[in-house]
Design brief:
The protein is an alpha/beta fold. The chain contains 14 helices and 14 strands. The strands form three sheets. Strands 3-2-1-4-5-6 form a six-stranded parallel beta sheet, sandwiched between helices. The chain is globular, with a radius of gyration of 20 Å. It binds NADP nicotinamide-adenine-dinucleotide phosphate. NADP nicotinamide-adenine-dinucleotide phosphate binds next to helix 1 and helix 4.
Length: about 350
């Protein structure tokens, strides 16, 4: 691609927004042309407005941009949203109505029947929901959503098992990092040396979103998978990386070796494998007895690979395993960028740019 595609980042000053800025600064296809946040940040340079938390220097060319208010038009066909969920709905809709393709990390539109909730390796075919959305809403642009940060890793790890053996029931306990709560997030006095067995709305999101992602598209609508899922969500004193311990019952029985083979062999379609942000393999099975671990394994595949370990028999259901994913990369900005790459590969960004010219 000779010229990079201009993109905007909404909520660019926050935890996920900063991850977007870091990932996009060196992206081969995209270039950050606008950063936007609340009116408290608008009008200042990005460097002045942002409490930069990434462990690499802020890209200087982005630090010099002036933070905008979150109002259309966007300088290019793609808008990434990392907005506070409470304010995201009308803002994202306004950008979509103005002709932009919005790839959002917020929960607001994820369960809308006409919004694709995408993990490119898993449900690339759900992308065609965008056509129904544009028709029914009369938009030139569109909204596509990223799953919740725990769901992104969990549903990717479940996909090969569901495809090969069909999941009937599962129990999931999460151990979620502090960065999942944004900045400044959970007060240090609440989380240091502590575990908090509650994250508002999280269990419901994981249950609903996993079934939608692993559901089937027929006649322009998603039919969610019908497995039953019980989730316990916990906040733990870890900086990055959401872990989940999983017990799963399968319709067609599989032993440990068959499950590991399915997980290791799993790949997206050939065109998804060729996207710049796609890790190969998307799932890394680690058979060491005490892995994966949050600090040691969350960055695998530049944060885009999901680690699975401790695959073993379960005395209550069929199999047990541990799943780990990076919550702000695979669970947020990295996967949103991968979705935008898929939109480019599908020819949808050219069409959006053509309409807005
Ligand atoms: N953290 C994660 O691991 C993660 C993972 C997946 C999804 N998400 C979702 O991604 C979104 C962002 O999360 P985060 O963790 O990055 O949160 P955050 O650190 O609190 O950042 C929130 C961002 O929203 C902006 N904002 C707040 N109120 C606004 C308003 N009225 N108008 C315009 N912008 C406004 C903030 O701008 P100012 O700096 O100007 O206030 C900031 O840029 C949330 O919806 C969250 O649920 C987070």
């Amino acid at each position: 691609m000779s010229q990079r595609i201009p993109v905007a980042v909404l909520g660019a000053t926050g935890t996920v927004g900063q991850k977007f800025v870091r990932l996009l600064a060196e992206h081969p296809w995209f270039e950050v042309a606008a950063v936007a946040a609340s009116s408290a940040s608008a009008g200042r340079t990005y460097a002045e407005a942002t409490r930069w938390r990434e462990p690499v220097p802020m890209p200087p060319e982005i630090g010099r941009l002036t933070v905008q208010e979150c109002v259309p038009p966007s300088p290019g066909p793609i808008v990434f949203s990392a907005l506070e969920a409470e304010v995201a709905g009308p803002i994202e809709q306004a950008f979509a109505a103005s002709g932009a393709i919005v790839v959002t990390n917020t929960r607001t539109h994820r369960m809308d029947p006409d919004v694709p909730l995408l993990i490119p390796e898993v449900n690339e075919d759900h992308l065609s929901l965008v056509d129904c959305q544009q028709q029914s809403r009369g938009w030139e642009g569109a909204i596509l959503a990223n799953p919740n940060c725990s769901t992104a890793a969990l549903a990717l790890a479940l996909a090969p098992l569901h495809r090969a053996f069909t999941i009937e029931r599962l129990f999931v306990s999460t151990m979620q990092a502090i960065s999942g709560a944004g900045y400044p997030g959970v007060a240090s006095l609440d989380i240091v040396g502590n575990v908090i067995p509650f994250i508002a709305g999280e269990e419901e999101k994981i249950e609903l979103e996993s079934r939608k992602i692993l559901g089937t598209l027929a006649s322009g609508a998603i039919e969610s998978s019908d497995f039953s899922l019980s989730v316990h969500a916990n906040r733990v004193p870890v900086v990055d990386g959401h872990m989940a311990t999983v017990s799963v019952e399968l319709r067609r029985k599989a032993d440990v070796a068959q499950a590991i083979e399915a997980l290791r062999a799993f790949r997206g379609s050939p065109r998804v494998c060729q996207l710049p942000s796609s890790p190969i393999p998307p799932i890394e099975v680690d058979e060491r007895i005490d892995r994966p671990q949050s600090r040691l394994d969350a960055d695998r595949g530049a944060g885009m690979a999901v680690s699975v370990g401790r695959v073993r028999p379960c005395p209550v259901l069929d199999l047990r395993m541990v799943v780990l994913g990076h919550n702000t990369v695979r669970g947020a900005a990295g996967q949103a960028v991968q979705i935008a790459e898929l939109l480019v590969a599908d020819g949808r960004v050219d069409r959006a740019a053509g309409r807005s010219r």
